[in-house]
């Protein structure tokens, strides 16, 4: 395996691990302070609303954890898995001008990435 491929893979996995670690830290911090409204806001926010906000934050952070793993998987499939090359080969069959060909490859990848992330986006937005 080429050293740049190894570097890319190492940095991708390191980035994913750091985001996961920060996510766990955030969840732990929110849960640790869930039952106490900060003194600066105690006169404006009731404990029930504070707990509801903490629960929402934890749920959102847990969903972000899955989204981060999905993003890493998509990057791996598109790059090392040959996804971009596969889409490029599909469009090459039409023998289009280079500018149109490249544009269609990029738009196809963007559409595919958006489609893969749609279920989590719907869940985050609408709670589906």
Explain what this protein looks like in three dimensions.
The chain is mostly helical and 128 residues long. It folds into two domains: 1-62; 82-128. The chain is built from four helices and no strands. It has helices at residues 3-32, 47-78, 83-92, 98-126. It is elongated and about 70 Å long. The mean pLDDT is 94.
Please give the structural blueprint.
Blueprint: H1 3-32, H2 47-78, H3 83-92, H4 98-126
Summarize the structure in short:
Helix content is 79%, strand content 0%. It is mainly alpha-helical.
Low-pLDDT residue intervals, each spanning 5 or more residues: none
Helix content: over 70%
Strand content: under 5%
Give the C-alpha Rg. 21 Å
Question: What is the tally of beta strands?
Answer: 0
Largest sheet: none
Multimerization state: single chain
H/E order of the elements?
A: HHHH
Mean pLDDT: 94
Distance between the termini: 42 Å
Provide the structure class: mainly alpha
**Number of helical runs?**
4
Query: What's the structural domain tally?
Result: 2
Shape, please?
A: elongated
Question: How would you describe this structure in keywords?
Answer:
single chain, 128 residues, mainly alpha, 2 domains, 0% strand
């Amino acid at each position: 395996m080429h050293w740049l491929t190894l570097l890319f893979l190492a940095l991708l996995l390191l980035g994913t691990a750091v985001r996961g670690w920060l996510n766990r830290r955030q969840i732990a911090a929110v849960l640790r302070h869930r039952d106490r409204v900060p003194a600066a806001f105690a006169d404006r926010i009731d404990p029930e609303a504070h707990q509801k906000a903490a629960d929402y934050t934890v749920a959102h952070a847990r969903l972000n954890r899955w989204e981060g793993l999905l993003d890493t998987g998509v990057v791996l499939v598109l790059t090392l898995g040959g996804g971009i090359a596969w889409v490029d080969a599909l469009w090459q069959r039409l023998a289009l001008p280079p500018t149109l060909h490249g544009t269609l490859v990029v738009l196809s990848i963007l559409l595919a990435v958006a489609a893969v992330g749609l279920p989590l986006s719907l869940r985050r937005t609408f709670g589906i």
